Amino acid sequence: MAGGWLDPGPGLARTALRAFSCVLILLPATAALGATLPFMAEAVSPRRLSRAGDVARAYALNTAGALLGVVAATAVLLVEVGVRGSGTMAASISAGCGLLALAMARRGAMPAWDEPDRVAVPRSVRGRRQSEGVPPSDLRPWVAMAAVSGAGTLALQVLYTRMFALTFHNSTYTFGLVMASFIGGLAIGSAVYANVRSRWEPRLIVAWSMVVGSAGVAGSVALFSVLTGLEYFSSGSSWWTYLLGAGGLVALVVTPPVALLGLALPACWEAAGSGRWGERQGEASGSVVGWLSAANAVAAAVGALVASFVLLPTAGLWASFGVASGGLGLAGLGLLVALRRSVAEGFFAGLLLLGWIASTVQVPARIRTLPADPRIRIVASWEGPYGRTEVVDARPGVRILRHDLHYGLGSTGEATVREYRQGLLPLLLHPDPREVLFLGLGTGLTAGPAVLVPEVERVGVVELIPEVVEAARLFQDANFGVLDHPKVEIRVDDARHDLLASRDSYDVIVSDLFVPWESKAGYLYTTDFYRVVRDRLAEGGLFCQWLPLYQLGREEFMMISDSFASVFPHASLWWGALEAEKGMVALVGSDRPVAVEDDRVEAVLPAIGAALEDSDVYLGSATALRRLRIGSWPAPDPGALLNTDEHPRVEFRAPIRQRDDRLLVGGRLLALVDEVFRALPEGPPQPSYRRRVWQRAQLLDSIGR
C-alpha cells in the first residue's frame, strides 16, 4: 500500500481528467478572445500588412492591457471583488469592448474592409487552403519561427518563476511581479518593433532578436545570482518597500531579455506578410496574424508544460535555462544562415552563443548550502515542477528537509518532539481513532507516530510534492518507517482534490502546518475547504488544523478561527507549542464536544512512550494533555469577515503582515493570550484559571530560552 503512489496509472488518469476539464471549461472563452487579435490586425491594416507598425502598436497595447489586468487582479480584484466577481468583471469588460467595436463599425468609425488580392491569390487556391486547414506553404517557415518563439518564451516564464521562488517569499504578490515584468517585456518589445521596423528588414529582426535575446537570458540568470547571492530576499522595512525592491529586482533581471524576445512575433507577422523570402505574396493581415499567433500560442502551451514536467525534473533549473534560451538562439542563428547573411554576422552571432554557453556553465549546477556554514552538508536534492527539495545535515543529530532553499518542511533534533506532538495530540483526543488521514507528509515525523497508536487500523497520507516523498525516506530512523508501514498508504495529490475524489470517511483528519502567505496555501484555510473536510469525517470524527502563530497576524488568526467555527459546531483551541517566538496552536473541530478521556489516554500512552526516545512532558499523562486546552472557539458573529474561496483574504493579507513585522510573536502573542484566549468560553467542566496562568508562564519562560 505504501508504494501505491508510484503507480502512474491512477495518477496520470486523474491528471489527464483534470487537464481535460480545464480545457473544456476555458477553451470556448479563450478561443473567442484569441480570435480578436487577427481580427484586430485586419481592422488596423486591412490590405495585407502594409501598416505592420500599427499592428505591432495595437499588439503592444493589447499586451500592456494584460499587464494591467495582472496587476489589478493581484493587488485588488481577487481579494476585494472576489474570484467569481473578478471573472464576471473581466467578462463584462470583454463584452463591452465587443459592443463598442460593433457600434464603431456601424457608425463608420472603423476602416472599411476590402477582400485582399483576388488576382494574386486565385479563388481556387484560396478555397483549397481553407479546406485543407493548414497554413499556406509561403507562411510555413514563419509559422515555425513563431512556434519556436512561443515555446521558448513561455518555457522561460516558467523557469523565471521558479528561479525567483528560490529567494522570494512566494506569495501571490511576488508571482504577480514576475508575471507583470514578463508581460511588460513582451509589450515593450512589440512597441519597440513598431518604431524600428523601418530601419531593418523584419526577417533580420526575427533572427537577431532570438540570438541576442538568448544571450540576454543567460546574462540575466548570472545577474540574478550575483544580485541575490541566492539569499532570502528581505529588502525594505515594510511591505511597500519590500514590494518596491522585489519589483525592481524582477524588472531588472527579466524585462530586458524578454523585451528582446518580444520583437520576434510582430517581426514574424511582417516577414510572413511580405511573402516568400521577400516576394510580395498577398495574404491578408488577419490570415497572417491568425496563423502565426495560433502557432505561437499552441507552442507556448507546450513549452510551458515541457519546462514544468520534463526539463525541470530531468535537467534542473539552470540547465533548463540553457536548453530554452539555447533553442531560441539556435533558431535565430539558423535563420541567419538561411538568409545567407555575411560571414561577419554569422561570426558575431556565434560569439553571442558562445557567451551564452559560458554564462550558463558558470552558474552553479549545484546550489551552495544555506546558510553559509561549512558544517552544513546537502545529503540529497531534487528538482521538480514545484521547486527544489533538499535534505541537509545541519549538525550532528539535526537533519532538515527544506524547499526552495529557505522553507523548512520539518527537521529532527529539537523539533522532533514537537512534530510528534502534532500527530499524537489529535489521536489522543479522539476516543477510538481507527481511520486516520494526514494532509501533508514532510519529514513523516507528524504522521509516523500514528502507527504507534493501538486502535489505528489505517493511515492515509496525502502529499502534494513527489520529491518530498522521496526525501522522507531519508528520515526513516525518526519517522518509524512510515512510508513502508503496512498500515500506511501514501498518495501524491493535492489535499483538496484527494478529499473530493474519495468517498472514504475518517475518524481523524490532521492538516499540517502550511505557510499562510504562500500562493494557494491560503485556500487550505477557507470555509469551503473546511466543509470538504467535514463531509469526510465519520460520525464523531474530528479535524485538527495546525496554525503557525509566528506566520500569522492577529486579524488573520481570528479570521481563520472564525471560518473554522462557522463550519464545525464544536471548535476548540489547543496549544501545540508554548513558545513566544514559535507558537503553534491546533483548532480541533467536531460534531460534538471534544474532551480528554482519562482512562483511554492513560491506557495508550505506555505503548506510545515506549517507542519514543524522548518523552514529551506535554503528553505524558491525561492531566498534562488537558493543560494544553485553551478553550472553546465560539461561532462567529453574522457580520464577521471569513476566509473563503471567493474572497481568499488570508492568502493576500498574511504576506503584508509578515513584511510589516506584525506577526504573533513576543509581546503581540502575549497580548492575544491576555485579550482573546483568556476570554474564551470553557468547554468540559474543569477549573481554567490555574491552567491559563500556567500557559502564560510557559510563554514567558520561553522568551528567555
Give your account of this protein's structure.
By secondary structure, the chain is α/β, with parallel strands linked by helices. The protein has 23 helices and 12 strands. The strands form 2 sheets. It has an 8-stranded mixed β-sheet, with helices on both faces. It has 2 domains: 34-106 and 158-368, no CATH class; 407-702, Rossmann fold. Residues 1-9, 116-132, 276-284 and 364-371 have low confidence and may be disordered. The protein is elongated.
* Total number of domains: 2
CATH class group of the largest domain: Alpha Beta
Sheet/helix structural class: alpha/beta
Low-confidence stretches: 1-9, 116-132, 276-284, 364-371
End-to-end distance: 43 Å
Sheet-strand content, in percent, reads: 5-15%
Widest sheet, order of strands = 7-6-5-8-9-11-10-12
Can you identify the CATH superfamily of the largest domain? Vaccinia Virus protein VP39
CATH topology of the largest domain: Rossmann fold
Q: Largest sheet, described in full? A: 8 strands, mixed
Shape descriptor reads: elongated
Oligomeric category: single chain
Q: Taking Cα atoms only, what radius of gyration do you get, to the nearest Å?
A: 29 Å
* Mean pLDDT value: 84
Number of helices: 23
Q: Helicity level, as a percent range?
A: 55-70%
Number of strands: 12
What is the correct CATH architecture of the largest domain? 3-Layer(aba) Sandwich
Task: Label this structure with key terms.
single chain, 705 residues, alpha/beta, 2 domains, 8-stranded mixed β-sheet, 4-stranded antiparallel β-sheet, disordered N terminus, transferase, Spermidine synthase, PABS
